[in-house]
Write a structure and sequence with these properties.
The complex is a heterodimer of chains A (303) and B (303). Chain A is an alpha+beta fold and 303 residues long. Chain A contains eight helices and twelve strands. Chain A has helices at 2-16, 19-22, 30-35, 37-47, 53-65, 85-92, 132-143, 293-302; strands at 96-104, 111-121, 127-130, 151-157, 163-173, 178-183, 204-211, 214-230, 237-243, 255-257, 263-276, 281-292. Chain A has a six-stranded antiparallel beta barrel. Chain A has a six-stranded antiparallel beta barrel with strand order 7-8-9-12-11-10. The longest helix of chain A is centred in the N-terminal third of the chain and has 15 residues, at 2-16. The termini of chain A are far apart. The longest helix of chain B has 45 residues, at 2-46. Chain B is built from five helices and 13 strands. Chain B is α+β, with helices and mostly antiparallel strands and 303 residues long. Chain B has helices at 2-46, 92-102, 104-108, 245-257, 260-265, and strands at residues 51-52, 55-66, 71-81, 86-90, 123-128, 133-140, 143-151, 157-165, 168-177, 180-187, 205-211, 216-224, 233-234. In chain B, the strands form two sheets. Chain B has an eleven-stranded antiparallel β-sheet. A two-stranded antiparallel sheet of chain B has the order 1-13. Classes of the chains: A alpha+beta (303), B alpha+beta (303). Chain A binds chain B through residues 61, 64-65, 132-133, 136-141, 143-144, 146, 148, 172, 174-175, 230, 232-237, and chain B through 65-66, 69, 71, 118, 140-141, 143, 243, 246-247, 250-251, 254-255, 257-258, 262-263, 265-268, 270-271, 288-290, 292.
Amino acid sequence: MNRFITHLMLFAVLVASCPVNAQDAQFPDYDTLIDSMTVRMLRFQQTYKCTTINEVRKALLSDMQTADNLNIKHLPAMRKKVVSGRKINVLCRKGSLLFCGMRINRQTQAPEAYPIASATVLGSDGLCATNYHVLSDVILSGMLGYQPPTDMMRFGIDCDGNVYPVTQILYADPVNDFSLFKVDTRGGTLTPIPLGSTAIEGDDVYCLAHARGIPFYLTHGMVSRNTTVTNKKNGHQRMEMQMTADYAVGSSGGPIVDNCGNCVGIVGSTYSLYANQSEQRDFQMSIKKAVPVKLIKACFKSK
Amino acid sequence: MRTNVILLFLSTLYLQSAIAQTANNEQRETALTQQLQLQRTEAEHYYKGAVTADYGIRYLFSFVYDVPSHRTYKEDRLLLVSPHVTLDMSYLPIGTYLWQKAHITEAAQGKKDGSLQNHLTPTFFFYHPQKGLLRETARVISQEFLLRDTLCKPTWDISPEERMIDEYSCRKATATIGGRRWTAWFTNDLPLQAAPRHLQGLPGVILEAKDDKGEIEWIFNGIVNEEDDLKLYIKQPAEFSPLSSAQAALVRKTYALTPTSYVVECGILNTVSGLYPEVMFPAMGLDACRITNPIETPTTAQP
């Protein structure tokens, strides 16, 4: 009898350890998720007193200066086990936020939320990364004390529809195009994607970002080239991880992960090659340029 | 007969389009002329009570800001000369005005003085000869920043060597400032005393200055005189940004490294009304460059 119970328990453990294979395929209604953004954000705002984006602008310079307490020890440990694409999706899904804004519609005078880009969760306490160009409007206007009256919020929304308003912008690197910010978790925790090691040419990479109108889109590819690009006009150098995993407008700031589910970069930009480049005719290839994780890690170390 | 009708029809079309084009050009020229007039009116208002310079000296400033890669920055600078204060600034605002006035047809078609594009550093060096005080300020969009006050009285060795620069008889002088050896050519054929940046203290007007490594130079590029519709104002900012020097440095750096299109998109220009002070984008000038070969300055004075 004891032996039977032991076998039964072993079986139960085995089943529990293979949730991906056991679960049914899900077909979430993403359009409804996007359509409900405004209501979700307003409900959050009514329930809690949350930070508006103009308050973020107001505190921007002091927040960016006092970001010394960012500590890499507070970030999750790197994952070591190689897993399948299915598992990557499960592991990283909650760590990839759809990055949105909310403003007063000039015609209806009603608040409306709108998707902007993507963001990567780095810390369970709400630390996230996205591109500089995603937050540049807030950063630039905030630095000179301008607070657009119709601009209300920036927030992330996860795959379950939870909204997380941006509370602080901590760091900005215009050259390498990334920034770090914090969101309001209401005392809860987010599911971060651990920072991994620098991926090198040939390494498998996945991108789980939110191309315009196509949220939570997982693609797979490999690192094609790591390179440093020097701006010939001003001498500044930018590091790029170029890769084949696909993404498009809206994916900016989304996570690029390795085959263990560690963040090895964030989406940056694309560069399209045409046979006739000047007239942009006869499309040949699109190079995907990501911000390598090395830069994000260096930022923590320098703090 | 039919061919003639078609030809007549086509000629009429061409004529109509030519007339419309001419009318458009005339409209644009009128609009530009009005804008230049408005510029003069606003300038008179903004600069009310400000000192006017006796004349200005145009230099071509050349600076190897990164020696290993021999990256060189060039800019048209203007030194405004008056008895009690001189101002070393970008030539762009005055240069653009003069060029538009002289090339009204081309300017109305949206053409620009190609030699001036992307050569604008929004730093201003006010020198008070009686006190030996050099005040360095910067402008980001329309906000003024006080960078530093420096006591600036280098010791020059004046040699008997002479040469002509344009129509002016010049004498040679040498000095070491912050470890860099300078050679300057100054004239007494022009009234008062003046020099670019920190190369002050000579009994005349510097028309050319170079360091001994050939990395930095100011080359005389003509005299700018006051005209009926062009006053050479020297106005020190009435107010400076209250930000700390570290915060101001962060603002300047961020703006300098951000593409101008982002600055336009962020809405900060909505805060600017009127044409003065001129909106300045650090990204267009030396502030955007990765300087590894700084121009040494004398000891900072007590504020």
